[in-house]
Amino acid sequence: MIDPASGTQLExxxxxxxxxxxxxxxxxxxxxDYLRAGPAxxxxxxxxxxxxxxxxxxxxxxxxxxxxxEHSRFIRTADGGWRLGEPAPPAWRTxxxxxxxxxxxxxxxxxxxxxTGGQSHLKDRITEIAIVTxxxxxxxxxxxxxxxxERSIPPFVSRLxxxxxxxxxxxxxxxxxxxxxxRALEGHVFVAHNAGFDWRFVSxxxxxxxxxxxTGRRLCTVRLARRVLPQLRRRSLDWIAMHYGVExxxxxxxxxxxDAIATAHCLIRLLEDAQSxxxxxxxxxxxxLATGAPGRKRKKKRxxxxxxxxxxxxxxxA
Length: 318
Description:
By secondary structure, the chain is an alpha/beta fold. It is 36% helix and 15% strand.
């Protein structure tokens, strides 16, 4: 199944809300390939995976348990061996169509991050994160903290966000707040305005801090706005907030807390509007988003006309 928010393939066991899982490695994939031929003992499995000629059974058993225990697709057999198990479908997939949970029964973690730049997998880090919980059509909790990025903040970023090095130098790095972040995300649908950006940074930081992968349902309010508000010229947070009459306090725009709270209030209204398009369940919302939205045709550039480079002077993610 394709995730409408990111265009990536989703796992069959995608949970309803956020959780972490052990990262897949080359050894894990080798173990899975070996067990596709059928169940095997710890000794034969470890010998194949680690490319060893022989391994004492006690050591092999310890290595196999250490390697596979956090991966749910590997099942220990009654005789102490291992086999591949079929991934369990998400809980909501096991219900009859009329029993699938309603969107109104889900809870959402609306996330916004401020960062030192746009390269999540390279040099850039989070400087501030906010997570706003939406449940029963209302904002419930707000988690917000500055984060020490352990690198300098470019001047143009400080001008945009008003976050300076002096503000973060004594704050904990992401690994110091990761447990609180995961607690705020757990069990909720991950939501952000331009969700791909926030997801990349949060999931990368979680993996860096814990060695585990963040997984779960995701929803992008930009994509949702394209479908339910096709009349808007732009789908920036400012435009959507203006459309719904959501106020962003002065000085809070381009700060994680202000943007996340505004996005949360916009999400509530967007989901209400999505219901008028027949989206009362998650599967219906997925189909609605996957169909795309009518858009204005872009003018084609004349042959030979080149786009000139320009400096980055504003936030293009929200």
